[in-house]
Design brief:
The protein is of the alpha/beta class and 303 residues long. It has 10 helices and 11 strands. A 5-stranded mixed sheet has the order 3-2-1-4-5. The chain is globular, with a radius of gyration of 20 Å.
Length: 303
Amino acid sequence: MYILGVNAASHNSAACLVRDGQLLSFVEEERFDRVKYSTAFPSRAIGYCLDHAGIGMGDVDEVAIAGLPRKEFVLSGMSLLRHFRRPWYRTWLRNQMLVTAGTRDFRQRGRLRGALAFRGPVRYVEHHRCHAASAFHLSPFDTAAILTVDAQGDGLASAIYEGEGNRIRPLAGYRFPEGSIGHFYDCIGEFLGFRPVKDAGKTMGLASYGDPDALLPRMEKLVTFGSGGRVEFDVDFLKHERGRRSCARFTKEFGPVLADGEEPTEPRFANVAAAGQRLLEKAILHLAEHARELTGAKHLCVA
């Protein structure tokens, strides 16, 4: 049985091919269109996977697509109601509902049925479950706790699963934006002059140049650690208006954003990166501890 996996929801579009539970091939579209973090529909990646196996689309039994559009629509709508008075979140969450979730199903099915002429079944797989599977099923463990940490996917920021054999069972989920460690880290990066999503590695690298203890007490004002693995950020420190790299409350606490002519390795900026990195690590460890409490597992898979 051939199953074609497709990620075409946002950045890093890709395809993989599985035969009877064994991974045959995987490749990202950026390898063909030469656009880093490509968001294009992965037509050439799909073609490569099929050619590698010596089959055509007519030989594929099922297509699995990353993301649940309906879940994205519902959870983004609920977050929109919670944050309607916050301009940046209101616009972003509305777009998630109407553009990302509202049209994704039609666009992806249209490409599969049209250009690729696929007539078989199409299944959507929850965003964080895809991450969990990528970590657990490729691990050496028969059982493990699984932790996924993201900015957001299908309305959730992070999730905890239990993996056993070929099964993955959901145990907990944490909502966007207040529970989003990835969104927090993106906002730190934007303050430092880096691009969200694409430049997180630069923030991590810059952190090694700074002193985390210099600003950690102030950075910790942004987050509350609670029971049940809960990590909640004060989003009024993160985003307010569209078109601005930071917001007034954050710059009041940490100074102006990186300007032209300034270097991110200057202590003021490197210390922000270092404190942000330390806080991210504390938040992930807090979630990991709860994953162990829920599962009693000796092993942890992280994606």
